[in-house]
Write a structure and sequence with these properties.
α8 packs across α10. The strands form 3 sheets. The protein has an 8-stranded mixed β-sheet. A hairpin with a 4-residue loop joins β15 and β16. By secondary structure, the protein is of the alpha/beta class. Helix content is 30%, strand content 20%. It has 2 domains: 153 residues, Rossmann fold (3-Layer(aba) Sandwich); 167 residues, LD-carboxypeptidase A C-terminal domain-like (Glucose Oxidase, domain 1). It is globular.
């Protein structure tokens, strides 16, 4: 399929911050994190930050006004001076924006959108409009990382959003964390989260050789909410794609993962993909169990033991992370356990 690729960012560009799901960025008890992230966008990336009118209205207001969340989103696209839109954070009800989205506005004003988790809904909106987006870091988490942003995250943000050359090989992160230090205590922002070494790299669960395909994916729990809606992609968007999936901090059970994959299979999407890449589970809970589910679903139940499957990627709810560009070509080298964005 044809996809419109927004222009990359450069220093001095304006980026809009939106709260499309949870409105915590506007809550006084954690607003220090928003202020810190804004400063980093300005000082470390050279960007001019535009806070959309309702982004900092707070949890209750944002929850009660999906139409105004959507208005911020649409207005950011319509503003020709804004070059990118960054999501403050995910949540659980972005789907309520659907009645208020004008896909022609997105298509006629293509620009970068960045976010993950519940922002999977927004990525499917972008896909529906035919505009490339980037599944990746959010304001309150990665850009507001305690003490300092992870070098890994910064490196791949710059490669994905600022450079016109291919991202190339994506290295596995050598350390990771999901430690949560409560945000309602500002002093915690000055405590570096505990990092855990990771010597596993990208694991190959099945398949051999190399496979290439366009990237499509996101948070698999959100996939389950989108099945049957107008946002669920047609089969041509899944055709010969590399499906990247991750699970949230809710840590769904292995059975729930199995049921969701079976339901997606019933749509026909999994019959036409070229490969699967799953991210590290949150806190590595169910790490081995999720692997067993993938092999059960694809190898045992559907007799597709040759479908390439890689595991332990760095694009989920663990830190650090790298962006995944929707509908951009990627390659999995199963023999070497390597991943490339082409």
């Amino acid at each position: 399929m044809n996809i419109i690729k927004p222009q990359k960012l450069k220093k001095g560009d304006k980026v809009a911050i939106v709260s499309l799901s949870w409105g915590g960025a506007g809550d006084l008890v954690i607003q220090d994190r928003y202020i810190l992230a804004k400063k980093r966008l300005e000082s470390d990336f050279g960007l001019e930050v535009v806070t959309m009118p309702h982004a900092l209205k707070g949890t209750e207001f944002v929850a009660n006004h999906p139409e105004l969340r959507a208005k911020d989103f649409m207005d950011a696209f319509k503003d020709s001076s804004i070059r990118a839109i960054f999501s403050a954070i995910g949540g659980s009800d972005t789907i309520r924006l659907m009645p208020f989205i004008d896909y022609e506005i997105i298509r006629n004003n293509p620009k970068i959108f960045l976010g993950y988790s519940d922002s999977t809904v927004n990525h499917f909106m972008m896909l529906n409009a035919g505009v490339q987006s980037y599944y990746g870091p959010s304001i309150l988490l990665e850009f507001a990382e305690n003490v300092a942003m992870h070098d890994y995250t910064v490196e791949y943000i710059k490669k994905a959003l600022f450079s016109n050359t291919p991202m190339g090989e994506i290295k596995a992160a050598k350390n990771w964390t999901t430690e949560h230090l409560p945000w309602d205590n500002p002093a915690n922002n000055q405590i570096q989260r505990t990092m855990t070494p990771d010597n596993k790299g990208f694991e190959v669960l099945q398949g051999s050789g190399c496979v290439s395909g366009r990237l499509i994916g996101g948070c698999i729990e959100v996939f389950d909410w989108l099945r049957g809606t107008e946002l669920w992609p047609d089969l041509d968007k899944w055709q010969d794609s590399i499906l990247f999936i991750e699970t949230s901090e809710e840590t769904i059970t292995p059975d729930q993962l199995l049921w969701i994959l079976r339901a997606i299979k019933a749509t026909g999407a999994l019959d036409v993909i070229a490969g699967v890449f799953m991210a590290k589970p949150y806190n590595e809970k169910y790490y081995d169990e999720y692997k067993d589910v993938l092999l059960t679903v694809f190898s045992k139940e559907w007799k597709n033991s040759k479908l390439p499957i890689m595991y332990n990627g760095n694009f989920g709810h663990t830190s650090p992370m790298h962006p995944m560009p929707y509908m951009q070509m990627a390659k999995m080298d199963l023999d070497e356990g390597k991943f490339f964005i082409l």
